[in-house]
Write a structure and sequence with these properties.
Blueprint lengths: L1 H17 L1 H13 L5 H22 L14 H7 L15 H14 L9 H11 L6 H9 L18 H5 L2 E5 L1 H4 L5 E15 L31 E9 L4 H12 L3 E4 L5 E3 L8 H32 L4 H12 L2 H9 L2 H9 L10 H20 L10 H6 L6 H4 L3 H24 L6 H25 L10 H6 L1 H13 L17 H12 L1 H9 L1 H26 L10 H4 L2 H20 L9 H20 L10 H27 L4 H7 L4 H6 L1 H17 L9 H37 L34 H4 L3 E4 L6 E5 L10
Antiparallel strand pairs: 1-2, 2-3, 2-4, 2-5, 6-7
């Protein structure tokens, strides 16, 4: 510390004595922007005091005014008078040097300029400011306050100070040091506040009690050369006896209209902050505790039964008999639905049958990781970094097009969802002689998706706020949790993509709303395909063209993607603009059902043309807009927005068709890798929790980070295992048990016999020709107890499920 002071003091003295012009420049910048660097102000004040003291002693005038009083707020003048002198017979009081330092920097790092400051805050603040060079706790408070960093013009304009140092400070001071009354030892702790500063707009002294949006790039008016309309957030360590409102008013008075400041209460923290559990948090904790108890009991009953079956003479057998006599059969089944042992085995089971569409596992997992990768880059713009402007340099890279166009990964899931709905439902309709149990068709889907989603929403809205700390953690509680407390019902009704779109509870669930709305519409496509195949195919082709035209119309009318255009959400989150991939999936699912058990022979040139066309089209969709000026030409903007998503789903349709019919080659080998199966089963829950797991890191960061491609890639790779671990917990605790409980609530009729298998030979390019799973169930990979059922999100509905066409239901 002494070395730093020496270097700074030497530099400042050289600036003062070596060049009048440079000295004036230094003084001008620090006088006009005194809050830029409190360290500089402190050292300048000390140097000025020492120089003035020397002059005063030489002239014999101890009370000559100094230039330190110029521009000092009224509050400081009232406390110290018009000069910096102090009675020489009161050594216990503050020295003139300490008063000079307090005047120079106090108004910009504390609430001292507030004319209505409370007595307790005033006493504590004066004790802090007058002892910066005398007591360690005061110096620590000053040290913990944010100061001007390096790389300002690169976007490093969020000096958060030191969170932990501030909160761990305990101050002890004697009131006689300031007030001259009887000794009275007073104690306070450090209080960390995140203050938001911006160039003043409008009224000269309008306090900003609400922080600027976190989504803005963190360029603030650190220097006059920076543009208007940008903001800064700076960490300040103040006494715990002061309130956020006192700090806000004090800063606004100190800045005298040049800067607008705000320090919201939910961005102020002390070490002793105690947050009591809300009623919702208590209810959610109770639900989680009961679920944990059910999992413990269910696992115990399950293991006892398994051990007893292995050795009927062992103690396990007697315990199992006692449990069977004690627990009613229905209650026993309920407990077993929560067995971590059985549900975990199903989750990790990689067996499949000849009817398994194995390649879908790989498509699902890789698409899900693509979504997470896109979110990794996307959330960089919502938080503060040392070099945020660096991110914008990535936009010009060819490789970055895979990130900026990652939204087509969501269309992969729309396609997969439609494919599996048709593939399973058409079989069910056939086995039911052309009938579809429409009530159970919808009830099953609602039960399949809603409970786990609502429990995750409940957890986020009630308990998420208690899981972290940090300068920005106050925003975590005021963001998604608050929105979920207000708008949870829109998710339950699957209309959150139509109502209050700017207040999305768990933002990624817009996909689920779209998927549910398309699912409700799907029987109008599936029944014609079954009963009148030719007419049904014409109908679905017409619908694809119709909704493609709707997409073009919305883009043109609202000028989306062009200057002055409306929000992209009008196109991105609406079912009538995202229906194309889902319809293509329905069509492909119907085709795969029709070719089950049949040999498909394709000439080599057809296969080559199919792969080349699909590959080039996919690359054109992802990389084709590289080099196009922004905004793009109107015609290109319209054509790309109209066709890119449907064209992407057609490319995927070829990949699935080729893999299923035996023309997938290495691609099919990769996509059908068994290691993808357990991970693909977690796609639905991983999608639901991924964003909150990712932003948790940023909300709990205690200092801005320096961004680089290496850092971002490491963060992406590190987030994957955490996301899937959290997803596995929710899957085992809620998703898998709900599937088993549904079977108890709605008993299933006995399974119909599976369709006769086609003759197998070495040259037969059928759907996956793997051995049946242990259960012998049809299509175990997607329908049996351990399988994935359906693509659900920019993640899929991938939890274990026991759904077959014989049950008259689909996913």
């Amino acid at each position: 510390m002494a070395g730093l002071w020496t270097v700074l003091l030497t530099a400042l003295c050289l600036a003062q004595t070596g060049s009048t012009h440079y000295s004036h420049s230094v003084r001008h910048s620090t006088r006009d922007w005194p809050w830029v660097n409190p360290w500089t102000q402190l050292l300048l004040a000390k140097k000025d005091f020492d120089r003035q003291e020397s002059l005063l002693h030489g002239q014999g005038d101890r009370h000559a005014p100094t230039n330190l009083s110029r521009g000092v707020p009224t509050k400081m003048e009232l406390e110290f008078g018009d000069d910096t002198s102090a009675p020489t017979d009161a050594p216990e009081g503050p020295s003139r040097r300490d008063q000079a330092i307090a005047k120079a920097i106090g108004p910009y790092i504390s609430p001292i300029a507030n004319a209505n400051i409370s007595p307790a805050c005033l006493d504590s603040t004066l004790a802090y400011l007058l002892n910066i060079l005398n007591k360690q706790w005061a110096l620590q408070m000053f040290d913990a306050t944010g100061k001007m960093p390096d790389g300002v013009l690169a976007g490093n304009l969020s000096p958060w100070g030191n969170w932990d140092e501030c909160l761990n400070i305990t101050a002890h001071f004697n009131a006689t040091d300031i007030l001259g009354v009887e000794p009275n030892v007073t104690t306070f702790t450090g209080k960390y506040c995140l203050a938001f500063l911006s160039k003043a707009r409008g009224s000269k002294s309008a306090p900003l009690f609400k922080p600027p949006p976190a989504a803005g790039v963190a360029l603030a008016p650190f220097l006059p050369i920076l543009p208007d309309g940008v903001d800064l957030d700076i960490g300040m360590c103040i006494p715990s006896t002061c309130t956020s409102e006192e700090l806000t008013v004090g800063l606004n008075m100190a800045f005298m209209g040049k800067v607008t400041a705000g320090a919201p209460d939910f961005f102020c923290y002390t070490k002793d902050d105690k947050t009591e559990l809300s009623a919702g948090a208590i209810v959610m904790t109770t639900i989680l505790s009961l679920t944990g108890l059910l999992m413990l009991v269910g696992t115990t009953v399950d293991i006892v039964a398994i051990k007893a079956a292995q050795d009927s003479e062992a103690l396990w057998a007697r315990v199992n008999i006692a449990l069977q006599r004690t627990l009613p059969a229905l209650l026993r089944r309920v407990f077993l639905a929560f067995s971590v042992y059985t549900n975990g085995r199903k989750l990790l089971d990689t067996s499949s049958t000849r009817d398994t569409l194995s390649c879908l596992h790989g498509i699902r997992f890789l698409s899900n990781t693509w979504v997470i990768l896109g979110h990794t880059y996307y959330f960089l713009l919502f938080f503060k970094h040392q070099n945020i402007t660096t991110v914008y340099t990535y936009l010009g890279d060819v490789a970055f097009q895979a990130i900026s166009n990652a939204t087509v990964s969501v269309d992969s899931f729309f396609f997969l969802s439609g494919l599996l709905v048709a593939y399973i439902a058409i079989r069910s309709i056939e086995k039911s002689h052309g009938k579809l149990n429409i009530v159970m068709f919808y009830v099953h889907r609602y039960i399949r998706l809603t409970p786990v989603m609502m429990l995750i929403i409940g957890f986020i809205s009630t308990l998420y706020a208690y899981l972290g700390t940090g300068p920005y953690w106050g925003a975590a509680n005021m963001g998604t949790p608050q929105i979920c407390r207000d708008n949870w019902w829109t998710n339950m009704l699957y209309i959150n993509n139509l109502v209050d779109m700017d207040k999305q509870c768990v933002g990624q669930t817009w996909y689920l709303a779209n998927d549910m709305q398309m699912f409700i519409f799907s029987p109008l496509v599936l029944l014609p395909l079954h009963h009148w195949p030719k007419l049904g195919q014409l109908w679905i082709i017409f619908l694809v063209c119709f909704f493609t035209g709707i997409n073009a119309m919305v883009t043109a009318v609202h000028k989306i993607g062009l200057p002055g255009g409306d929000s992209g959400d009008l196109r991105y989150m609406k079912p009538w603009t995202r229906a194309g991939p889902y319809l293509v999936g329905l069509y492909m699912g119907w085709i795969l059902h029709k070719i089950r058990g049949r040999k498909i022979h394709l000439p080599a040139p057809v296969v080559a043309i199919g792969w080349i066309t699909a590959s080039l089209t996919g690359c054109l969709i992802v990389y084709g807009m590289y080099g196009v000026p922004s905004p793009p030409p109107k015609t290109l903007n319209l054509v790309y927005a109209m066709l890119n998503r449907t064209a992407w789903s057609i490319c995927l349709a070829w990949v699935v068709f080729a893999c299923v019919t035996g023309y997938g080659g290495f691609v099919n080998t990769l996509l059908s890798w068994k290691a993808f199966i357990p991970l693909s089963k977690l796609t639905y829950t991983s999608y639901l929790v991924s964003i909150d797991v990712q932003v948790y890191y940023w909300y709990t960061n205690k200092a801005p980070v320096y961004l680089s491609q290496t850092f971002i890639v490491y963060q992406f790779l590190a987030s994957l295992p955490i996301i899937f671990a959290v997803a596995a917990i929710f899957s085992l605790a809620f998703e898998s048990p709900m599937i088993a409980l549904e079977k108890i609530i709605f008993p299933q009729p006995s399974r119909a016999a599976p369709a006769a298998p086609a003759r197998q030979d070495a040259a037969q390019p059928l759907v996956s020709s793997t051995k049946p799973g242990r259960s012998g169930a049809v299509n175990a990979g997607f329908e049996a107890d351990g399988g994935v059922v359906e693509a659900k999100q920019a993640g899929t509905d991938s939890a274990p499920e026991n759904i077959t066409p014989a049950e008259g239901k689909t996913v």
